[in-house]
Amino acid sequence: MNRSSILLILACCWLASACATFPKHIPSTLLGPQARSPFVTAGTDSSGMIVWKQPAVTIPAPQTNMGTKSIEKCGGEVGKFLAEWQDVNGSQMQLIHGKAAASEFSGYDFWGTHRYHDWNVLLVVNQGYDAFLGPANFISFGGWGDDAVAQYLFLKNPELDGLVELEWDSGFFAPEMAPTAGDETLVVGRWAYDCGHEDEETSSSEHTLGFRAEIHAPEILMSSHILQSDSTTVHANFKIFAGSRSGPLNTIPLIFYVQKFFASYKNPLGGKDYSIGLRAPGDGWKIASCRLTPGTPAGGRARRITGNIGSDDGGTSLTFTLSAKDLKPTARIESSMMVDVTWVRSDSSRGRGITKCE
Predict the structure, then answer these.
(1) For residues 74 and 108, what is the distance between their CA atoms, to the nearest angstrom?
(2) Taking the model in full, what pTM does it have?
(3) Which end of the chain, N or C, is less packed with Cβ atoms under 10 Å?
(4) Which residues touch 51 (CB under 8 Å, ≥6 apart)?
(5) Does the pLDDT value for residue 14 go beyond 50?
């Protein structure tokens, strides 16, 4: 076989694999564009309904010259053929908190470095989390020119500026467990530069912006969705998904057809216990009802772990605990559940202070 034939075969393999697929059994309602919430402003952890408890995490110190560093780590135009993602600041998992402005399947993902389409969440980070955003994460610096969803959000809300993207290969994540636009969202995952996407502004000869920073892939994704809120009642639904499997994040794009199925990244979810508080917005509430139901699983051969949930403050709030301390850090772990909670005013006759979910 001559050199031309080999190059032709390789080109056909590349082109035939150009578009990632959707997992089976995905509801048709999730395949198209989803509702977007451009009028989302940054909040604070103290005012949120999701409170991280353990293990202890620290927000990284502000990074200097993130644009330049991203070019150095990604390697510019050539580097994207060698690695599509590079860690920003080591491989440790990071926690980020904010509100979802959009949540839907990506428009395009290269099959060679994805098993399936990514589910993407565009997050407006809470105050104090700006260290996660590089220059290319800000529209005011010229970023996001290659993302139609982000452009829509900025057009509808001129006050919006910085966004961070959460990406999870949908073969290892259940999109039904994703937040909807406007939901408070908390995520723990891998902080990385996306070396595979660079628009005209960021790829100019000056390289002033570099590549966007994102969370890819998460290992824990939680959201709160308010169903009803008035002076007497708060009714909310919490989604909690944890998974150690993340897809082929360490694949070399240039030789994906050899490496794709052997380069899956595993989040180090095992070896620790995780606790997160679920509470009503503000004080003066008691739990009137609480129902726990299994969430949608992602599938695969992961070990299913059901988290424990209960109240240790007399029925004012709940604590969800995922126990993975006795498992190896790279163990295949998955947990998926939904918590439906109604709070009423503490002086209400319905305010019994329920401490255990049904």
Answers:
(1) 20
(2) 0.89
(3) N
(4) 45, 276, 277, 278, 279
(5) no
